Amino acid sequence: MAVSIAEIRDAAGAIAGKVKRTPSVDAPRLAELVGAERVVLKLESQQYTGSFKDRGALVKLLSLTPEERKSGVVAMSAGNHAQGVAYHARRLEIPATIVMPVGTPFTKVERTRHLGARVLVEGDGFDTAGAFARELAAKEGLVFVHPYDDDKIIAGQGTIGLEMLADDPDLDCLVVPIGGGGLIAGIATAAKGLKPGIELLGVEAKLYPSMYNAVRGLEPAAGGSTLAEGIAVKRPGERTKPIVESLVSEILLVGEDTLERAVMQMIEVEKLVAEGAGAAGVAAMLAYRERFAGKRVGTVICGGNIDARMLAHILMRGLVRDGRMVRLRIEITDQPGALARLAGVIGKAGGNIIEIYHQRMFHDVPVKKADIDAVVETRNAEHVREIVQGLNAIGFPTRLLGTSSVDSGG
Question: Alpha helices of 205-255 — where are they, by DSSP H?
Fold first, then answer.
């Protein structure tokens, strides 16, 4: 095996007091939701930079010789790895250069610069940005810090496994997100070293099943826009793949809708913010409930760095999907008092009108009629049906617009 549990223990000693020992918290409502006996969340989202990447980055930087520290390091990343390297390089007074692909969100670029790194935006994707970073390393004599395919990085991430089983030795299953494989390779090595009978399950986004395909000998096939951009890796690591093959029982694939639901559940049920990749373990439990029935499950909330606008969008989509925010198209007679009467019916039924649009001018609306589009906040899908039926019953033909779990029953 490329990395041993002894090396992971050494890594734990090296970073003790310099990286947060994050809490493992029980999630009883989530356990009830997925049918597990117990669910434990390891909150790596509480690290200084918001992700587990702090661990491996620090272990790698601490391993450098005095000459390498003086020369500096270079890394390629569009997010969490960039911030982990930049933060600890600043603490250790090591010059750091981060290559970020063109199109990296401006906030992530500025956050990384704020941590003291020289940021270069180069390349139209991870492969080209990575190639540029390696060329720069050779040209300037820098140490290239790989985001996952490095024994020091793997050992650093493995310290999470030591902590999880120290806090909750009764766990019989760990669910770990997979990008390049550094996180699961480290955790699996630690967990199996401590408790050989424990089950390790990996999780990937369906759009980026890189490790899933690699361990099956399938051709790489990945691409598209995913909420779990932190694990959107086209090719897994050469050092991580054999560890996964040896120690991981199964890799579960989750779709975008389930990832959205997982982020939503984390906020509504557990009152915790997770990015898409950070909630991937929860998404796997939601998608494969039978796989976790009656088990004591631990998962890593590996990051919380989600864009505020994206989070707001997910929350609003979740309300629509659950029938708690709906758009109704209502036909009324275009005469004084009709709109007030309609609003009164919705209000009396307990609905809260958020927005309302009057449609008079379009040719498919009769000249003495008007269409009203009303965005209404409701309790649930059944409440929506009550409101729609009430409007239809008093002569306001009503139908539901958009996509939700609601059948208007009209």
Answer: 210-215, 240-247
- What's the mean pLDDT when you consider all of the chain? 91
Q: Structurally, how many domains does the chain consist of?
A: 3
103: number of Cβ within 10 Å: 10
Of 316, 335, 369, which one is at a domain's C-terminal end? 316
What was the pLDDT predicted at 408? 46
User: Where are the alpha helices (H) located in 255-399, listed in sequence order?
Assistant: 256-268, 280-287, 289-292, 308-321, 338-348, 381-393
Residue 214: inside a domain, yes or no? yes
The tens digit of pLDDT for each residue in 289-335 reads 999 999 999 999 999 998 888 899 888 888 878 778 888 988 888 77
Using CA atoms, how far apart are residues 56 and 16, in angstroms rounded to an integer?
13
| pLDDT value at 410 more than 50 | no
Residue 91: CATH number of its domain = 3.40.50.1100
Distance CA 274, CA 271 (A): 10
CB count within 10 Å of CB 172 equals 15
Expressed as residue numbers, the domain containing 29 is: 5-52+156-316
Confidence of residue 366 (pLDDT cuts 50, 70, 90): low
DSSP letter assigned to residue 48: T
